[in-house]
From TrEMBL, chains A, B:
Stretches assigned to the Nicotinate phosphoribosyltransferase N-terminal domain: 8-130
Lineage of source species: Bacteria, Pseudomonadati, Pseudomonadota, Gammaproteobacteria, Chromatiales
Name this protein carries in UniProt: Nicotinate phosphoribosyltransferase
Matching InterPro entries: Aldolase_TIM, N/Namide_PRibTrfase, NAPRTase_C, NAPRTase_N, Nic_PRibTrfase-Fam, Nic_PRibTrfase_pncB, Nicotinate_pribotase-like_C
Nicotinate/nicotinamide phosphoribosyltransferase domain ranges (all copies): 152-329
Length: 457, 457
């Protein structure tokens, strides 16, 4: 079976355009930018994520024999083009912001420079990879702003949109500052710390809730978290006291209880009192169920004594903003600047750099998008990360990127960290960028006049 | 690298519970139901989808050597349990509604019967697979209701949450009645018809829009769709007339033009007039950009002369309702009915059947959830689809399921087909189901009394 991340995981129009390019040898160098047009409502910034997966996709881009056999059998493509597909590799270069870097609308986050067909074919998957992890990493940082000193764990695999989404959500939320994920595969694949509790079914499969607790505690004594809301939350907390004493005699500590239903704040307050009165002051309270950054902030503002949160469906589906208004657009071909003019979707031409300036205290002060060859008055954010189809060593580890993200978030203006951010961040375009855009427009107008002349109104 | 659909694609708590079950030989037969608690706002029904992927996951469930090596190295699990994981297979049975069947809250859509650890481990992935395709298939049927005679194509891969989401959206939207998808891989994997046009970058890479059109037309003359909104939509439509005449001389027909920006209805009206006046009455208009079922219905209600729609981000991310309130819950263990009582999350115990009744005209009249062994006064919807870990032949093809879905949608009460459905559909629980729930409650109360007595408040 052709794997789900095969090169055929693309839009048919990419192959159609490639065949047309191939037919007329249009393989001059093209430059494409990936960028976002708007921030989601209430968001002050976005966090770049997914670059590592883009780079491995480009490095390994090659049609398998199975894919080629399908393409030949489909009757959709000419023999000459099929030969071309057989030899297809990505030989271009990539400039990108580091994973974990905050960015803003209209800033190129990633730039691909390659022969036109190569840069075109990968469009669909590049957007697919960057958009999702950017959504999740950003949302994770917003949860961290809401609960900076709490244990935050991704619980969303089951409600994520498929296998890759669940796995990448674990990666991206850790990048964004979560403590870890419940998704086991994220440990071997990305070194993400993993966390787990127990399900209601475990309690229900036993004839007695306390027997279930003790059974679990003795089988899995490390990092013990007991789920107490299967029947009666406060009742379970009370009954737990005696059990905890017996377990303590054998050196087993109930590290936390988990509440997954009802009014989480109210239950947490009552359970905290019961645990404290019962001598379990060191046992933490972990909450889950329908949480996102807003709900967490509200619970903590209300004084809920909750020490950690499991954040699932609303994180892994980016429920408040499940997609970004993002694009991957041609900005140069064969040395000429290019842009499109579609209503509300005009783009900036040419090769760009994003330069970030900081104030004396190290806080971000504003970005400028400028031509690549303009002198940088600040920190250039786009770095060369792939050349001749190979990653430029050394690629940062995910742990490095996570540290970078935390450091960068510390430099954000406070107003942008608000969960309902109203303030904008200053991003301007250099005079030379404006001049280049005008130049591209004149070019477009000329060719339209020419076409009109030739074909009548 | 461990593949993204490996058995470790699960929550850590599943493995923790398995180790506890293993430690005390709790491997009696368990029964779990997958069901949805509520319909999304405005939805009159949901459409079952994703069963084929669940069955192949269960059939192939086996830890790879790489996974086992990681589990051993992690130090998280005992040797005896690692041996158990090495031999892990799914040997149980599955009852399920056919893909394409409409269903309603609290109705089991899928039931797993297996030794407790087997039924438990697969929980996370079963929910992950069923939820997403159910969301997408349902949304696709709603688009079909909005535009029953139009060409509807899934364009969402780039904004889908990862590879699997994009691929499964193509599958599920075709199941729901779409004409096809732009996702190439859906053709070899699932036999989904694929469609493609061209990107703005193709136009921009040429010095002249008309030259780009002609180049594309001659390279890919079949099913020719030209994208006309890169610079000036109506201008491009006018200039196209002369080109179309020249192409027609060589037997090439411009099947459609595509509009992807601006006021789609207004542009479509103007372009229709231009094409009709220019003798291109047979050239269709295809629209895309920010579409969902509501927008499509509004465009058509407004008389927009649009013949087909490309539906992307809002379909593939199920943007209005990106996750379902769904669950996979234990309802029987070791022959005893089980349920949980958590606030607002109580579940129904026991093995169930869903029986659907129809009126004289074949329209659905109401469903009853009853015990499996009660006589069925209507059509039983849950069928045995897997036994002893192997699918029960023959599995319907996706094309069969698509036909079944269309047939079933024809039997829905009209009110449920509304995009903003207010009416409910009658689902009741048999007297014997109510009696069983009471029986399970008495059992829970007894054990709680017992626990309370033992440990004091």
């Amino acid at each position: 079976m052709i794997p789900a991340n095969a090169l055929l995981l693309t839009d048919l129009y990419e192959l159609a355009m490639l065949e047309a390019y191939h037919a007329s040898d249009m393989d001059d160098e093209a430059v494409f930018d990936f960028f976002v047009r708007d921030l989601p409502p209430g968001y002050g910034y976005l966090v770049a994520a997914g670059l590592a997966q883009v780079l491995s996709t480009l490095r390994d881009a090659q049609f398998s024999d199975e894919e080629l056999a399908w393409a030949a059998d489909s009757g959709r493509f000419g023999d000459d083009f099929l030969d071309y597909l057989r030899g297809f590799r990505f030989t271009g270069s990539v400039h990108a912001m580091r994973e974990g870097t905050p960015f803003f609308p209209d800033e190129p986050v990633l730039r691909v420079t390659a022969p036109l067909p190569q840069a075109q074919l990968l469009e669909t998957r590049i957007i697919n990879l960057l958009q999702y992890q950017t959504l999740i990493a950003t949302k994770a940082t917003r949860c961290v702003h809401a609960a900076p000193d709490k244990l935050l764990v991704d619980f969303g695999l089951r409600r994520a949109h498929g296998a890759e989404a669940g796995l990448m959500a674990a990666r991206a939320s850790w990048l964004g500052g979560f403590a870890g994920s419940s998704t086991v595969l994220a440990a071997p694949r990305f070194g993400v710390p993993i966390y787990g509790t127990m399900a209601h079914s475990f309690i229900e499969a036993h004839d007695d809730e306390l027997v279930a607790f003790e059974h679990f505690a003795r089988a899995r004594p490390q990092s013990l978290v007991l789920l107490i809301d299967t029947y009666d939350t406060e009742g379970a907390a009370r009954r737990l006291i005696g059990l905890a004493e017996r377990l303590a005699e054998d050196g087993i500590q109930v590290q936390a209880v988990r509440i997954d239903s009802g009014d989480l704040g109210e239950h947490a307050r009552r359970v905290r009192r019961i645990l404290d009165d019962g001598g379990l002051g060191d046992t933490n309270i972990f909450a889950s169920g329908g949480l996102d950054e807003h709900r967490i902030a509200a619970l903590l503002a209300d004084g809920a004594p909750i020490d950690g949160f499991g954040i699932g469906s609303k994180l892994d589906t980016a429920a408040d903003t499940p997609y970004l208004d993002c694009a991957y657009k041609l900005c140069e071909y064969a040395g000429e600047p290019r842009r499109k003019h579609s209503e509300h979707k005009a783009t900036w031409p040419g090769r760009k750099q994003v330069v970030r300036r900081y104030d004396a205290s190290g806080r971000m002060r504003g970005d400028r998008v400028q031509r690549e060859d303009e002198p940088a008055d600040g920190e250039p954010l786009l770095e060369l990360v792939m050349e001749f189809g190979e990653p430029v060593a050394p690629t940062p580890t995910l742990a490095d990127s996570r540290e970078h993200c935390a450091e960068q978030l510390g430099r954000l203006p406070d107003a942008l960290r608000a969960l309902d951010a109203q303030a904008g961040y200053p991003v301007d375009f250099s005079d030379r960028m404006h001049a280049l855009a005008r130049e591209a427009d004149v070019h477009i107008e000329k060719q339209q006049l020419k076409s009109s002349g030739g074909n009548g109104p």
